[in-house]
Design goal:
Structural class of chain B: alpha+beta
Shape of chain A: globular
Order of helices and strands of chain A: EHEEHEHEEEEHEEEH
Strand content of chain A: 25-35%
Strand order of the largest sheet of chain A: 2-1-3-4-11-10-9-6-7
Structural class of chain A: alpha/beta
Oligomer: heterodimer
Largest interface: A-B, 29 and 31 residues
Distance between the termini of chain A: 9 Å
Shape of chain B: globular
Number of domains of chain A: 1
Helix content of chain A: 10-25%
């Protein structure tokens, strides 16, 4: 299986996402922001980083990258898409996911290994987890505070679109302790924590994050 | 003509007696006369600007050179050294075709003026040094020192510095894998912000900083040039604050960083290198275009013609002197074959990096710069590049004897279990030894996915090759208190600790970098400290068999006549043959037996105990034992490779007491130890060449044999397990209480 990883100017965890794809048994395909072509990949990952320096607003400029003009309709048609951290911010800016990510409540960048609860195991990216399973994955962000209007939050909760929730004390003031959400169809998932940094206990706090990627590989 | 009329060479020749503001630019009358002699006329405004930054203390090392010269000849022969002192950074062979380049640099003065941007651009500057060698930067470390933790100004400087490093390093995608944080009254008004960067390349990727080949083009690329940082090197970093001379003119000026552009510049440069499009390359740091052009020309064919009006500006009112002195960040200068300029510019365009051809290499032996057709600079580049050399007076101050006589053995000591317990808790809760998560949680340690060990481990460890497990280990250490008591021995202790920290990960130490932070070189007492420190470093490196590959000197860290403690910060690089066999400080494995390695004497001079409990600094520092350090390092590497240990932690600040507490907390497991002899000495002495190791159950005999074979003294003092740190017969501390004490301090101080 070929899974694309988009590199925007300022993407940083693209190499890590590609490694996770490889460890999950698939072939990572480098996609370039200026290239209006998804090269026939079966799924796409938008990695972490500071695309375009996070100037203006996190993800606000990346949303207009040429590759997004291909990605947005494909995602609306069911292409599995995973946005991690900055990738999540881009998916929100592109309106593929509801809500927005704002400055952490503590006003500081936070890197921390956190316990997370997987609350939706029906998405393309979380099928390999069991319901309400707790996993340990690092968070590292300055603008990771999930926010949405009360109606949207109620809808997300009611429809089971909250994919991940912080099981440790809320690290950034996210509404409802939300760490990740999906679209109504469940093919587009965005999360602030970094599962690609938890694929090997040698270099991460656990290997718990690997199943985001194996979910994709074994589910197709 | 452009908007700015320049002082030309012709005009300089015609107006030989025009008064020039050399003193305001930091040049002495003697230095000015030497420039006039070299040129055979007065310098133009642009030439004066160029000389003033190139001959600043920061760029020319004019006060330190005579001492630093001993480092190379005294350096031990090392097969690992591919490029040594004199390059942008040293390059070390770590095997399997990989080479590593690393260097530590200061950004002390800018970080006091504007903590966030000062520290941020400190990261940016050292990263470009590493990039210019041809390597991909893979990690950073930061060694930070501030005034007293509760002081209001520390509350301004520290959060700003940390946010600056966090902002720049995180956005650049470099994991921060360790460093230091310490506090002392001597750093109030003179914080030390030292940043280390390490990069990895293949052997063949080494780039040179030389403009060779007449006809080759000179390209400036990256950010545009603005007025930021004009005079940063000559004014900020080369004179003490608060001096009366020219105070109004010497307006400090701090650069502003753009880490996003630096990230693009890194990727752009690596693609240029891979395409073979670069003949020579130099980063632009202190002294900007002035430094890059003179150094490239001096190291190459010898001549260069530069069109200064071709430099892309962000402020059109800048003239030649400002363009030459500007320290605008995120810029590089490359020398490129004229037939490949098109390809070069195409790679820059791909990465949205602005590039401009500003000149060409010549064989005239002259660095000639024009401004809208008129010559404004015409000089032999070796003259500004080499700079003056000063033999500053150095004398050991009499106060050293008073200090040495103030023996900490006279201090009241804890005499019973409750007092020993209270002292241990006081130490691990003191700002310099408390949990540093408040700082390190703001840094990304995960990016790139190769970080095997990061803070609070003894050293950082980065995987270089996923298939073989080859890795590099790094540690930085400084100790102003030891060095204040004896700069020669203190520097050797600092070197020993960094060396030991690298060894404690299971790596073999290979090479050394240094950042020498001192007061004013115009003070003979400071110059004596400096000379002693450099001599200590050179002798220490020779004894340990690790060469110094490069470094940085920061003088004028003083306010009025009060200098900081002499604070050489030493970085040691090691190679790890298999990072899967790394050693952590955490006592995780129950029933592992604890062996104290090395010899413990009653050594409290400059100790964390004397400092934290009594505010005392006096006596003699611990005695370094470099041969014992070598034996200990050999044992740790061999034991790690053989898989005999579940943990290792070097003993340094706060001695065994602090090491045990840190290892218990890191591993989430308690331990029970029984101490030989006087428990106070056993717990708080800071004797060098020691470590505590946890031997895997079943490996005790094998480890004892290995230890004997390496000639390292050792004593089994206890076992890992339980929920408390227990010192038999004296006291016990539940892990929860240890953790609460250790973690409360910095959040209480900084929010």
């Amino acid at each position: 299986m070929r899974i694309g990883v988009i590199t925007f100017p300022g993407s940083l965890d693209d190499r890590d996402a590609a490694r996770a794809v490889r460890l999950a048994g698939a072939e990572p395909v480098a996609l370039w922001h200026a290239d209006r072509d998804l090269h026939g990949v079966a799924a796409v990952i938008l990695p972490g980083g500071f695309s375009y320096g996070d100037y203006l607003r996190c993800g606000a400029i990346a949303r207009f990258a040429p590759v997004m003009s291909e990605l947005v309709p494909a995602a609306r048609s069911g292409l599995p898409v995973l946005g991690i951290c900055n990738g999540f911010q881009i998916l929100c800016e592109a309106h593929l996911l509801p809500g927005a990510l704002t400055r952490n409540s503590g006003l500081r960048f936070v890197t921390r290994d956190l316990r997370l609860r997987v609350e939706n195991t029906r998405t393309a990216w979380t099928r390999a987890y069991s319901g309400d399973e707790e996993i340990v994955v690092p968070l590292k962000s300055g603008e990771g505070r999930y926010a949405a209007d009360p109606g949207t939050l109620a809808d997300l909760e009611a429809s089971g679109q909250v994919v991940l929730r912080y099981a440790d004390p809320n690290p950034n003031g996210s509404a409802g302790g939300i760490a990740g959400v999906c679209n109504a169809a469940g093919n587009v998932v965005g999360l602030m924590p970094h599962p690609e940094h938890a694929v090997d206990p040698l270099t991460g706090p656990s290997a718990d994050g690997l199943r985001f990627f194996t979910s994709m590989v074994s589910g197709m | 003509m452009g908007g700015v009329t320049a002082d030309t060479v012709a005009r300089a020749a015609a107006t030989p007696s025009l008064p020039q503001p050399f003193a305001e630019l930091g040049l002495t009358a003697d230095e000015y006369d030497r420039i006039v002699d070299t040129l055979g006329r007065r310098p133009t405004g642009a030439e004066l600007a160029l000389y003033s930054v190139m001959w600043s203390e920061h760029c020319s090392y004019k006060s330190s050179k005579v001492h630093l010269r001993q480092l190379a000849p005294k350096a031990p022969a090392s097969v690992a050294l591919l490029a040594g002192i004199g390059h942008n950074a040293g390059v070390v062979d770590i095997g399997q075709g990989y080479a590593v380049t690393f260097k530590i640099e200061s950004h002390n003065h800018p970080s006091y003026v504007e903590p966030h941007q000062g520290a941020a651009t400190g990261v940016g500057g050292i990263v470009r040094d590493i990039l210019a060698m041809g390597a991909r930067p893979v990690a950073v470390m930061d060694a930070l020192r501030f005034g007293p933790a509760p002081a209001p100004d520390t509350g301004r400087v520290l959060p700003g510095v940390v946010s600056g490093i966090s902002f720049y390093g995180n956005c650049l995608g470099l994991p921060n894998i360790g460093g230091e944080l310490d506090f002392d009254a001597c750093y109030a008004g003179n914080p030390l912000v030292n940043v280390l960067c390490v990069g990895v390349m293949r052997h063949g990727d080494l780039q040179v900083a030389a403009a060779s080949g007449p006809g080759n083009m000179v390209i400036l690329f990256g950010s545009t040039t603005g007025p930021d940082g004009v005079g940063g090197a000559s004014v900020l970093a080369s004179a003490a604050f608060g001096g009366p001379a020219g105070a109004a003119v010497k307006r400090p000026s701090v650069q502003v960083g753009d880490p996003f552009l630096e990230k693009l510049l890194v990727e752009c440069c690596l693609e240029l290198f891979a395409g073979g499009l670069v003949v020579g390359i130099q980063d632009l740091g202190a002294a900007g275009v002035a430094c890059a052009t003179t150094e490239l020309a001096a190291a190459g064919t010898g001549g260069m013609r530069v069109q200064l009006d071709a430099v892309p500006l962000r402020d059109p009112s800048l003239g030649p002197p400002e363009i030459l002195m500007s320290e605008s960040q995120e810029r590089m200068m490359a020398v490129v074959d004229p037939g490949r300029v098109g390809e070069f510019l195409a790679v820059c365009a791909k990465w949205d990096v602005r590039a401009a051809v500003i000149g060409e290499v010549t064989d005239t032996g002259r660095l000639v710069m024009t401004w809208h057709g008129e010559t404004v600079v015409d000089l032999p580049p070796a003259s500004p590049a080499e700079g003056p050399v000063y033999h500053r007076p150095a004398s050991r101050p009499g106060s050293q004897d008073t200090l040495a006589a103030d023996d900490p053995l006279a201090l009241p000591r804890p005499a019973h279990g409750a007092a020993l317990r209270a002292d241990l808790l006081a130490l691990i809760g003191s700002p310099g030894l408390a949990d540093k998560s408040w700082v390190t949680d703001q840094y990304d340690r995960y990016v790139r996915g190769d970080t095997v060990l990061a803070m609070p481990e003894d050293g950082g460890l980065v995987r270089v090759d996923e298939a073989t497990g080859l890795g590099l280990a790094l540690a930085t250490d400084g100790n102003g208190r030891y060095c204040r008591l004896d700069p020669y021995l203190g520097t050797q202790l600092v070197l020993s600790e960094a060396y030991r920290n690298v060894a404690a990960t299971g790596a073999r130490p290979l090479a050394v970098t240094n950042c020498l932070n001192f007061g004013s070189p115009e003070d003979p007492a400071v110059m004596w400290q400096f000379a002693e420190a450099v001599r200590g470093l050179a002798d220490g490196c020779a004894a340990l068999g690790v060469p110094v590959t490069g470094g940085n000197v920061s003088f004028y860290n003083q306010t009025g006549t009060a200098a900081i403690h002499p604070t050489p910060v030493i970085g040691v690089l090691g190679v790890h043959d298999d990072v899967r066999r790394r050693l952590s400080i955490g006592f995780g494995v129950p029933d592992a037996s604890l062996v104290l390695l090395g010899r413990t004497e009653a050594e409290f001079g400059g100790s964390a105990w004397a400092h934290a409990r009594h505010g005392h600094l006096g006596g003699r520092p611990p005695a370094p034992d470099l041969a014992a350090e070598q034996r200990l390092a050999g044992l740790l590497a061999a034991a790690a490779a053989a898989g005999l240990l579940s943990a290792a932690h070097d003993l340094s600040d706060g001695g065994l007491a602090v090491a045990l507490a840190e290892s218990c907390l890191r591993g989430g497991t308690g331990c029970r130890v029984r101490l030989p002899g006087d428990p106070f000495t056993a717990l708080f002495s800071e004797s060098a060449a020691r470590a505590i190791v946890a031997v895997r159950p079943g490996s005790e005999t094998a480890f004892a044999e290995l230890r004997a074979a390496h000639g390292v003294p050792g004593l089994t003092i206890g076992r890992v397990g339980g929920e408390e740190l227990v010192v038999a017969d004296w006291f016990a501390i539940p892990l929860g209480e240890l953790a609460a004490t250790h973690t409360a301090t910095l959040p209480a101080l900084f929010g």
